[in-house]
């Protein structure tokens, strides 16, 4: 029996001495040793020549691949006469320059070979070097997705648990003992696999050719896996992740059965895309790119695969099914996916727990000073309830939620929250998705191609998270708006002013805004949602400050962009205000900041945060905003509803956007006074002035909106929030400050301001709870239409219902299809030629209808005409008197209904034509995912 | 900054001023800017006008119907006011119920008797199209031994009120309902008497098929009732309604026939007119359909002004009931009208009986535009106009022959609260009243040898209000 050891080296001087030590220390030394060096630049050649002599060394160019190097080595050591045939086969023992064999390794391998004469390839158990204890491989196989499966846990210690002689698909080429005749008959390693995966391929081919591969746990080789871990880069390794993946794909495609090939081709593409997406989501864009490049590289060269498959057909003797048991079970990739997700979740939870524990510890240390020895022995975790009771913040939040439930007493129960500017939510969040995604809205009026308002996307997402219950999203926003706003404000103010009563005051003062301004009672979705989102946006924007590290600023930029997009989707003016504030910041920094902070890189995150918003709001920002039914800057909600009161200075000062449903002004007047008084304090003046910039811009915007008769809720919210921030910033430690002042005119004045400011949240909360949620917001049945009509309309959108409502000085009409007009439908209601002609037609019907006009009406996809109570007697009489209409059951008293005798059609409705909407949606989706990934915490790339 | 005096001899204490804080200046500027913005907000912005306002359109179709089978001497006169720009052409389609339909081309300003041979049809529909519909009025006149009676031929509508009907031995009324629309009508009839609403199940939810004419004798609904009011409410569809009244002045007297004029809606203030100048008995009948008692104030508008009739200044009408007041002595022989004002909406009529001939004064609407009183051949007409407002009112009146030629004209000026009369000379077929300043209401008193009747003046349909129609989200 002849054993030829074949060692391929490349820049392995770090490990080579130990490797050669191992080789020389073998209890059964190889009969011949051949070393092939592929153009090492370090001391490799010297080490080999000094230890083994120059004769064994064969030099090759640096671009030589591993298969070529092995081939060169075989040429250098021609087959020994007499060996390879008969009883005494010649064995090749393959070694890497980073794999050190245990002294017993070769002896054990040969012993196993002698005991199992039918085996052609044997491999050792491979342990990690330099730890020497961790198991790397005890035989390998390949999963259906191309993953190299060792069957080991990551970092598993070798305790002999896998010490069982067993047949495997393949063994690593580090320490592989292979019969030379078999190796040569198989054609050696596949040159298409220059570095990675060639061992698995060889094993698979050998199995198909009827050879057996055995792993011998008693033989041990220690392996650095220098190429795999990218410890060593060679011209051949290239990008190791990419190459490994390419090798895996190639191996699967050339060795898989022909029947499974089409399935495999599709599966690998989908799997790769999924993996790339997953990698993107965990913020590993490079790895995702590697995945895709490897896929493209393999799929763009089908000739290589075909050539490989031809070669394997020649050598294989067994059908593919015969080696199936050596491959990984089909469920393994899914199991890995599940493990990954659960690991990720655990890691997130653990990290959150760690962070909060660290915060608790530091806070406890800060608050109580040195911990007494007895206390240290107490159990650290005292339970959720105790922690809740011990924290004034948590108590305040719980209290706010309870108060919210009390104030919502009048609007609890069945039905849909609507009224004022709020339309009822659809029955299911899927309706929001539909409205957002579809190009042509046939279900709304005369149809339109307007893109849905951008706020439908967050609403649809939230609705989906809440198990499709769209109404719950609006209920949470409107009924729990105060606690939600308080949460964000508390988080922001804690960052600005630290933890204390001022923070709590500020959160309370801010949180009452949506109710005292009348936004909740008027059903102003835009203002209420903005009140919840605004503090989070401000919090994110704080980290754009040049004092933070670049990575932190960039993450903050993307987070700011996302939150600004979210805010702007509900109140598009937010973006305008942000642009103005950002411009002022840029100009201010160029003029005032120190030279090192004037650099482009310092302020690019800010620019990106603002500039990315139109992209994140895409289909709407390009297609929708210019042709929106109302002014593009109007908030979410019906613009025409509610009162757009003529605001005066007192309203602006007290943050009241209208008379209807708003609190008395004296409640909040203290906030404005405190914001002015905050300017007096010198040490906080810079921050306070920072808050005054958006305050002034927002006030001016509010006056502008008011002059146009628009609802000014959002700018007032910004002004109010800025005022609260200014007051809270200057209010830290105000009691000590006031106490320290010598008695004079300042002290009583200061006390007065502080008292009125402190009163604001308390009085506001009392007012809120006392008056409750009131009209026009109410919980009502979604529509008053007879059920048989809506059923017909749901069955076929052509069966529209023309609803004509008596509005005192005229009529308002709309065509209801499906389940009626729901939140979001208003944003896609088009005004166009068809809408105008329908309005003219309804005008004719209300004046003196003719049967021709009724026939024309059916062309607008109208099946029913419905007059809600109280039906106008003149109009009812007109419609009764015209032929073409049959009186139908109106169900409710004082309502009237008719059915058109003609079959409804779409003759008069505009037809959809192609639009850029799907493309823009796709861009938006990519932008959103990209921004979300970039906003996520940076992940350390694992080798 | 340290300031020191340079002039010798003056001692100025060294004073340390606080250095000018740039942020402080900015703060002051910020507060000033906020104050400026708040001042700007004080500028009031007038509420924006509604974008779409309603308008008017020229009437291009007018369907009127006269109901109730007439006798041999019934005529249906129709005329469109002369002198309307751009309202030429058009046709009249005359469709008697159950009879042959025919079409005529009318000339503007020319009176036509459209009944022809179909005068006894239960309903006669006069459908004017295009230009013929503009400013058209149609009335039916019955002349027989029992006297002279007039019926306004009205368009179908959903609400009708009649006051002064009866169901007793001497006084009987028939309600005639006709559906001239293509769809069925569902009608509720509510009858009120002196003791309140009369219970009757059969008058609710009556379905009247298209083309059907239904006659309902009130005796079947509320027997033994002297004074009744009738409310017709079409909950679906529209009808044309009329009340055929028969009143015997005394026991055993021969009954006189008349059509009770209709009222569209109950009202708080109203003018009842015109009144025949001679009458043996004048009875004011007021019905209160509301749930509250009505204390109705009465005023008589005479030739020189209005006065409260002594002893009948106020009439108490219980909730839901009908009450009467005798105004025989209160109204003299001057041209007069009676004005009512009530805290709750009521309906009313004034019955005049003269030598066994009964006639009813209607609630006459203020004239917002030109109106026509038709005068049948052989009947003399006197125009009575009452100034309903607080100022004097004017009107120009022109009398026309049947071919449209003007035969007489005058300008009337009516002092505030007074009633003026004008009797045109010549063979008058109709009188055109064109109101000027002020608020005028009134009608024509027609008298012939056989009797007396009154026709109210109503503004002619020239323009139709087109309501504002705007797309609404909900």
Structural commentary:
The complex is a heterodimer of chains A (943) and B (474). Chain A is of the alpha/beta class and 943 residues long. Chain A contains 37 helices and 19 strands. In chain A, 51% of the residues lie in helices and 10% in strands. In chain A, the strands form four sheets. In chain A, strands 1, 2, 3, 4, 5, 6, 7, 10, 11 and 12 form a ten-stranded mixed sheet that branches. In chain A, strands 16-15-17-19-18 form a five-stranded mixed sheet, with helices on both faces. In chain A, 49% of the residues are buried. In chain B, strands 21, 22, 23, 24, 25, 26, 27 and 28 form an eight-stranded antiparallel sheet that branches. In chain B, strands 12, 14, 15, 16 and 18 form a five-stranded antiparallel sheet that branches. Chain B has helices at residues 22-42, 218-221, and strands at residues 2-3, 15-16, 55-58, 61-67, 74-80, 92-96, 102-104, 112-113, 123-129, 136-144, 147-152, 159-167, 171-178, 185-193, 196-197, 206-208, 213-217, 225-236, 240-247, 256-260, 267-273, 281-287, 294-301, 306-307, 314-317, 322-326, 337-354, 357-363, 371-374, 380-387, 393-400, 406-414, 419-422, 430-435, 440-447, 452-456, 463-466, 468-471. Chain B has 474 residues and is mostly beta strands. In chain B, a hairpin with a 5-residue loop joins strand 6 and strand 7. The interface between A and B is large, with 62 and 52 residues. Strand 16 (810-816) of chain A pairs parallel with strand 38 of chain B.
State the share of residues found in helices of chain B, binned by percent: under 10%
Shape of chain B: globular
- Arithmetic mean pLDDT of chain B: 86
Biggest interface between protein chains, with counts per chain?
Answer: A-B, 62 and 52 residues
- What gap, in angstroms, lies between the N and C termini of chain B? 69 Å
Rough outline of chain A: globular
Count of DSSP strands of chain A:
19
| Percent helix of chain A | 40-55%
Q: Give the N-terminus to C-terminus distance of chain A in angstroms.
A: 41 Å
Q: For the CA atoms, what is the radius of gyration of chain A?
A: 38 Å
Proportion in β-strands of chain B? over 45%
| Secondary structure tally: strands of chain B | 38
By DSSP (H or I, 4+ residues per run), the number of helices of chain A equals: 37
- pLDDT < 50 stretches of chain A: 368-380
Which structural class best describes the helix and strand composition of chain B? mainly beta
Q: For the residues shown, what is the average pLDDT of chain A?
A: 86
How many helices of chain B?
2
């Amino acid at each position: 029996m002849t054993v030829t050891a074949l060692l391929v080296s490349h820049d392995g001087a770090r490990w080579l001495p130990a490797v050669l030590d191992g080789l020389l220390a073998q209890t059964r030394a190889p009969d011949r040793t051949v070393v092939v060096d592929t153009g090492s630049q370090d001391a490799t050649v010297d080490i080999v020549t000094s230890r083994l002599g120059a004769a064994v060394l064969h030099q090759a160019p640096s671009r030589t691949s591993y298969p070529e190097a092995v081939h060169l080595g075989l040429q250098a050591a021609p087959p020994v006469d007499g060996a390879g045939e008969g009883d005494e086969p010649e064995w090749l023992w393959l070694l890497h320059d980073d794999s050190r064999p245990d002294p017993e390794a070769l002896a054990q391998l040969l012993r196993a070979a002698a005991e199992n004469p039918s085996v052609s390839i044997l491999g050792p158990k491979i342990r990690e070097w330099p730890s020497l204890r961790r198991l790397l491989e005890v035989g390998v196989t390949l999963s259906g997705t191309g993953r190299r499966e060792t069957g080991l846990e990551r970092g598993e210690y070798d305790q002999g648990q896998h010490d069982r002689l067993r047949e495997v698909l393949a063994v690593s080429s580090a320490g592989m003992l292979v019969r030379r005749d078999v190796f040569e008959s198989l054609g050696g390693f596949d040159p298409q696999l220059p570095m990675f995966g060639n061992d698995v391929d060889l094993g698979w081919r050998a199995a198909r050719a009827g050879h057996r591969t055995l792993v011998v746990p008693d033989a041990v080789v220690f392996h650095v896996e220098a190429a795999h871990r990218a410890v060593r880069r060679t011209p051949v390794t290239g990008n190791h992740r990419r190459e490994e993946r390419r090798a895996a794909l190639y191996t699967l495609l050339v060795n898989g059965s022909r029947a499974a090939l089409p399935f495999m081709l599709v599966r690998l593409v989908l799997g790769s895309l999924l993996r790339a997406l997953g990698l993107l989501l965990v913020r590993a864009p490079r790895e995702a790119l590697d995945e895709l490049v490897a896929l493209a590289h393999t799929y763009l060269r089908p000739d290589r695969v075909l050539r490989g498959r031809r070669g394997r057909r020649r050598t294989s003797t067994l059908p593919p099914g015969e080696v199936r048991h050596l491959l990984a079970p089909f469920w393994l990739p899914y199991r890995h996916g599940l493990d990954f997700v659960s690991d990720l979740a655990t890691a997130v939870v653990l990290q959150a727990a760690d962070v909060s524990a660290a915060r608790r510890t530091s806070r406890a240390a800060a608050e109580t000073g040195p911990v007494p020895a007895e206390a240290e022995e107490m159990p650290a975790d005292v339970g959720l309830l105790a922690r809740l009771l011990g924290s004034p913040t948590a108590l305040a939040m719980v209290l706010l939620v309870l108060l919210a439930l009390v104030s919502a007493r009048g609007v609890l129960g069945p039905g849909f929250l609507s009224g004022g500017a709020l339309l009822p939510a659809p029955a299911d969040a899927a309706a929001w998705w539909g409205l957002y995604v579809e190009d042509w809205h046939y279900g709304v009026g005369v149809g339109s191609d307007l893109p849905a308002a951008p706020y439908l996307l967050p609403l649809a997402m939230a609705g989906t998270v809440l198990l499709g219950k769209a109404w719950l999203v609006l209920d949470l926003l409107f009924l729990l708006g105060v606690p939600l706003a308080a949460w964000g404000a508390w988080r922001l103010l804690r960052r600005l002013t630290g933890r204390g009563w001022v923070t709590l005051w500020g959160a309370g003062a801010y949180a009452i805004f949506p109710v005292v301004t009348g936004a909740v009672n008027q059903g102003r979705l835009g203002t209420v949602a903005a009140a919840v989102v605004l503090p989070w946006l401000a919090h994110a924007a704080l980290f754009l400050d040049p004092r933070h590290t670049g990575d932190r600023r960039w993450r903050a930029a993307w987070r700011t962009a996302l939150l600004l997009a979210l805010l702007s989707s509900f109140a598009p003016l937010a973006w305008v205000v942000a642009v103005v504030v950002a411009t002022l910041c840029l100009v201010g920094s160029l003029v005032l900041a120190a030279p090192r902070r004037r650099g482009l890189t310092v302020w690019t995150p800010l620019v990106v945060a603002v500039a990315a918003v139109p992209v994140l709001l895409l289909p709407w920002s390009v297609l929708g905003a210019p042709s929106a039914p109302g002014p593009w800057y109007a908030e979410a909600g019906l613009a025409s509803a509610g009162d757009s009161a003529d605001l005066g200075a007192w309203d602006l000062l007290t943050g009241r956007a209208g008379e209807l449903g708003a609190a008395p002004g004296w409640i909040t007047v203290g906030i404005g006074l405190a914001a002015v008084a905050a300017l007096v304090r010198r040490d906080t003046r810079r921050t306070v002035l920072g808050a005054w910039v958006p305050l002034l811009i927002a006030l001016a915007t509010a006056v502008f909106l008011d002059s146009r008769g628009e609802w000014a809720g959002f700018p007032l919210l910004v002004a109010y929030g800025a005022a609260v921030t200014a007051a809270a910033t200057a209010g830290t430690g105000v009691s000590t400050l006031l106490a320290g002042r010598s008695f004079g005119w300042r002290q009583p004045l200061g006390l007065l301001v502080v008292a009125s400011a402190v009163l604001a949240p308390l009085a506001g909360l009392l007012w809120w709870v006392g008056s409750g949620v009131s009209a026009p917001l109410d919980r009502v049945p979604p529509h008053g239409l007879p059920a048989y009509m809506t059923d017909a309309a749901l069955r076929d959108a052509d069966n529209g219902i023309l609803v004509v409502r008596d509005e005192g000085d005229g009529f308002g009409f709309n065509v209801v299809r499906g389940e009626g007009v729901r939140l979001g439908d208003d944003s896609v209601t088009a005004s166009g030629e068809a809408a105008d002609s329908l309005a003219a037609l309804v005008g004719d019907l209300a004046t003196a209808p003719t049967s021709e006009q009724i026939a024309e009406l059916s062309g607008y996809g109208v099946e029913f005409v419905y007059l809600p109570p109280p039906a106008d007697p003149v109009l009812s009489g007109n419609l009764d008197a015209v032929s073409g209409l049959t009186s139908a059951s109106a169900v409710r008293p004082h309502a009237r209904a008719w059915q058109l005798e003609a079959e409804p059609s779409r003759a008069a409705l505009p037809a959809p034509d192609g639009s850029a909407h799907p493309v823009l949606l796709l861009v938006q989706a990519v932008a959103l995912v990209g921004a979300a990934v970039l906003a996520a915490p940076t992940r350390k790339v694992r080798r | 900054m340290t300031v020191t005096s340079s002039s010798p001899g003056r001692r100025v204490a060294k004073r340390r001023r606080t250095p000018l804080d740039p942020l402080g200046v900015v703060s002051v500027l910020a507060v000033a800017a906020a104050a400026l913005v708040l001042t700007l907000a004080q500028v009031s912005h007038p509420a924006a006008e509604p974008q779409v306002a309603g308008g008017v359109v020229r009437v291009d179709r007018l369907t009127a119907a006269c109901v109730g089978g007439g006798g041999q001497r019934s005529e249906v006169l129709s005329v469109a006011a002369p002198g309307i720009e751009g309202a030429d052409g058009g046709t009249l389609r005359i469709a008697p119920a159950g009879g042959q339909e025919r079409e005529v081309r009318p000339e503007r300003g020319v009176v036509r008797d459209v009944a022809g041979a179909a005068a006894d049809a239960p309903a006669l529909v006069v459908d004017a199209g295009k230009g013929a519909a503009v400013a058209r009025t149609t009335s039916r006149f019955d002349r027989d031994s029992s006297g002279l009676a007039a019926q306004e031929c009205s368009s179908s509508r959903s609400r009708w009120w009649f006051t002064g009907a009866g169901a007793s031995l001497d006084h009987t009324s028939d309600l005639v309902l006709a559906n001239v629309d293509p769809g069925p009508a569902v009608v509720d009839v509510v009858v009120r008497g002196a003791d309140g609403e009369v219970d009757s199940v059969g008058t609710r939810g009556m379905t009247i098929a298209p083309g059907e004419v239904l006659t309902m004798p009130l005796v079947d609904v509320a027997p033994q009732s002297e004074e009744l009011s009738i409310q017709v409410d079409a909950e679906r569809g529209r009808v044309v309604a009329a009340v055929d009244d028969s009143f015997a002045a005394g026991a055993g007297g021969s009954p006189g026939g008349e059509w009770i004029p209709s009222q569209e809606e109950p009202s708080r203030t109203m003018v009842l007119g015109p009144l025949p100048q001679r009458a043996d008995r004048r009875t004011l009948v007021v019905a209160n359909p509301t749930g509250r008692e009505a204390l109705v104030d009465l005023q008589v508008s005479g030739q020189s002004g209005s006065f409260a009739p002594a002893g009948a200044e106020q009439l108490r009408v219980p909730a839901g009931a009908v009450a009467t007041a005798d105004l025989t002595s209160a109204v003299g022989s001057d041209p007069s009208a009676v004005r009512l004002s009530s805290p709750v909406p009521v309906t009313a009529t004034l019955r005049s009986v003269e030598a066994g001939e009964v006639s009813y004064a209607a609630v006459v609407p203020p004239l917002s535009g030109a109106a026509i009183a038709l005068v049948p051949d052989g009947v003399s007409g006197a125009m009575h106009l009452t100034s309903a407002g607080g100022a004097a009112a004017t009107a120009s009146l022109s009398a026309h022959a049947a071919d449209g030629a003007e035969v007489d004209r005058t300008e009337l000026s009516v002092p505030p609260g007074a009633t003026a009369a004008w009797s045109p000379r010549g063979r008058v077929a109709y009188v055109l009243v064109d109101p000027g300043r002020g608020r005028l209401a009134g009608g024509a008193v027609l008298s012939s040898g056989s009797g007396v009747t009154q026709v109210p003046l109503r503004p002619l349909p020239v323009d139709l209000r087109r309501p504002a129609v705007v797309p609404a989200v909900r």
